[in-house]
Amino acid sequence: MSMLLDERRESILKIVENKGFVSLVDLMDSVGASESTIRRDLEYLDGIGQIRRTRGGAAYSGESLATFEDRSFMSSRQKRQVAQAVANMISPGEAVLMDGGTTTLEVARQLAGKQLQVVTNSLPIANLLVNQPQIDLMLIGGFLFPKTGVALGKTAVESLKSVHVRRLIISVGGITEDGLYNSNMLLVETEQQMFEAAEEVIVVTDSTKFGHSALAYLCPLDRVDHIVVDDGITEEWKDVIRKAGIELTVVET
To answer: Between 20 and 30 A from 63 (CA), which of 49, 115, 147, 240?
Structure first.
């Protein structure tokens, strides 16, 4: 039942994202749910900051529909500094698994020139590293999500079952005391298999993600070994992370 709930909310979010604004009546027709159900879903999505409820409908308030390349170009100096800190943790000769995203792409840039084995489901990361002679590259296949160029779904999950790496480097859409979240159920399903493939999980994120959830639940906090974040993180969140037994690296930016 919870899967049906998540699927419906993800469908609603995609409709609102694509159209910018959708009426309550149109959403009822599109997903085949009652008015009270749609209202509860909109209340939830509004609560996590993905949409804004309006009279008679909903407007999109999450990440803009910019292309992956545009969002990557908008990466801040802060993001590059955090990515460099992660890259410095990786020793030559290691096998590393990297999830897609603008932050992990920045980590990949900082890894260029190192002798590594890199496994990724990200087409942008693969394109960046394919001509690096020191790097042995393995690209995980699957359904290619058009906005990010990341392979997801059953094929990706099955491929990852044969992978074993020293470290997983991953980014997330939100972090609460309950755990980690991301914005897409197929993405979360693939990332959960990534966790199984790695000896150590490094989450690279920015301080704005703390205290916020996203559409799909990924894992509890104790599945993470190390979090690398900018110095905007609060003292309260530092305590939460350390009490969870997670190593925390705060990058001065």
So the answer is: 240
